[in-house]
Write a structure and sequence with these properties.
alpha+beta, transit peptide (chain B), globular, THEM4/THEM5_acyl-CoA_thioest (chain B), hydrolase (chain B), 7 strands, homodimer
């Protein structure tokens, strides 16, 4: 990667100019596609996954739905203005993008509908997410649910953190199958955001899991987040 | 590698098995058992270079407690089938990996080891989240916390009730867990009602000063196929496993 986006100093002590340069180079780098967007079809996606993806992609045409890009480091999801707060550790990876082998981990893409306060995630669990033989681990289900609900909470309330997550596991998810994770924000009470979520099979016949969650808003920069975090 | 050699032999026997019968199946199982004793599958629940001093100290403290037999260290492999006796029930997919052992780079994923106390119906997990588990910058992802809690509670449920499946998991996130820190996940079975097993769990910092998360879980016992009691076998495996330092 290019120069760090942190505070750097010239031997003479000046720092302001270097910071601006770093930020420009990083921004330019992002536009040059420096960080790979994983929320796009690849060879491991099944036909079900592709069909579902195209269906939602069609729905983005009138602007009601937006595809949310996904990178393998959390800092790539945070708008430039916020990045300086964090020291970028090159060796960290966003948990859902931690498995390198294509198709082996979490294959997913999220779509956001701001007016409905809804985030839908298309999810295809890979062979490295195994729990019971042939099925996705309960923790991997919890992870994709936490992330989907979390994205919904962020779109509604800005910077948030999970306070409670409660999941009912109804039917195990076979590895390689495709599920739809549909989350929405039910209500906002002060700094509390209450959300719910359902995970269903592509044909809608099987309910795999249901969840409710409570997220707490950390600060009030909601407008900035909403604009910057999705294209 | 010994493993590949044994696997090759096993594959040959599989071919013979299709035309053969009982004798060939028994041979396969003997070779598999022999292979396990030859260390065919690596046990990851042992110290490695990525473990911090806190993790090592905690591990040694629990290892001491295994000496009088009340506590047992639970071995951990990177494929679920290595944890299950009577593997032939399942078609072994070589390309699958147990989720908590899916990240190859040492120290980058879930570094953990579990200890079981049967009489207290308790499983304790020592957990050091690596840099590939990131959620909020510098902290472990809520999903990774849910994963280690589900696994710890699940191991406890298995030891109490045999083959189980998670029915409900409810987690209160109290304080975020910094990447690279060490936490203790303490789970116990609270009660068993028919096929339902109710458990609870706390995740605390090593010094006990910070409560990171609390959880309740309900596992439902389901009997599938040949009704083999996974729980008892797991205990058997712990007893046979050499209890010594790394």
């Amino acid at each position: 990667m290019g120069p760090r986006g942190g505070i750097s100093r010239c031997p003479c002590g000046r720092k302001l100019l270097t910071v601006c340069l770093s930020r420009s180079i990083q921004a330019a780098g992002s536009q040059l596609g420096q960080s790979k967007d994983y929320a796009l079809p690849n060879a491991s996606w099944s036909q079900d996954m592709l069909d579902l993806y195209n269906r939602f992609l069609d729905m983005t045409k009138d602007g009601l739905w937006k595809r949310i890009p996904s990178y393998n480091n959390i800092l790539d999801h945070i708008p430039e203005s916020m990045k300086l707060t964090y020291e970028k550790r090159k060796d960290t990876r966003l948990f859902l993008r931690s498995i390198d082998a294509e198709g082996a981990g979490f294959e997913y893409v999220m779509f956001l509908n701001t007016s409905e306060k809804r985030v839908v995630c298309l999810f295809q669990p890979g062979s490295y997410l195994e729990g019971h033989p042939g099925f996705a681990h309960g923790g991997s289900i919890a992870t994709i649910i936490d992330s989907t609900i979390g994205s919904c909470a962020i779109s509604v309330a800005g910077k948030v953190m999970t306070a409670n997550l409660s999941i009912d596991y109804v039917n195990p998810v076979p590895l390689g199958s495709v599920v739809l994770v549909d989350s929405k924000a039910d209500k906002v009470e002060g700094r509390k955001v209450f959300l719910s979520c359902k995970m269903q099979s592509v044909d809608g016949n099987t309910l795999h899991a249901e969840a409710t969650a409570l997220f707490i808003q950390l600060d009030a920069t909601k407008a900035q987040k909403q604009q910057a975090s999705c294209q």
